[in-house]
Write a structure and sequence with these properties.
2 domains, five-stranded antiparallel sheet, 8 strands, alpha+beta
């Protein structure tokens, strides 16, 4: 279960989005900022990947075998902490192992949990280390998704639908990662 995700920079700036929407300075800044957050969340859900690297914290019961981390692409696992009741104990580097695949999927194996019944894993995940590293096709899809959301503001609830428009899906498709099974 994810317990925390660090807030990060938006992959598209308010000024850039407003230029795409052809809005004037000072016009609807808060609305556009909200649309940017929504579009980024939709993109991350569609692609199955975090856009800009940031810290993620997951907690789960200690289990035999490999534990799959939820977010991706994982850049690095920074810490694994054992939890016993309310107490925390950092697990030594040789008490756990981590494998990160080329596509960013990661697994952690707890070899020596000690008395811990649960573990807390802190890791960094994201396609790019900063805003300018986000692939241009994703940014273009975000701009179009922001426009779509902006235009849909006055539509009746339920008519909008869940899927991104076809052009946006086409721009994001190369980065889409779908997980089968657990």
């Amino acid at each position: 279960m994810i317990t925390a995700i660090e807030k990060g920079a938006a992959p598209v700036g308010v000024a850039e989005a407003k230029a795409w929407l052809r809005l004037g300075a000072g016009q609807d800044d808060a609305v556009v900022a909200g649309l940017i957050r929504s579009a980024a969340d939709l993109c991350e859900a569609f692609t199955g990947q975090m856009l800009i690297a940031r810290a993620v914290t997951e907690e789960m019961p200690v289990a035999a075998g490999w534990i799959r981390l939820i977010k991706r692409p994982v850049v690095a696992v920074e810490a694994v902490t054992g939890l016993v009741g309310g107490a925390e104990t950092a697990l030594a580097g040789d008490a756990w192992r981590c494998e990160i695949d080329r596509d960013g999927a990661a697994r952690v194996r707890i070899d020596a949990p000690g008395d811990a019944t649960h573990v807390r894993m802190t890791y960094r995940a994201g396609l790019a280390s900063e805003v300018n590293g986000v692939p241009e096709a994703i940014r273009q899809g975000l701009a179009r998704m922001i426009q779509h959301l902006h235009e849909a503001r006055s539509e009746a609830r339920g008519e909008f639908g869940c899927a991104p428009p076809a052009i946006v899906a086409a721009l994001w498709q190369p980065w889409r990662r779908v997980r089968l099974g657990r």
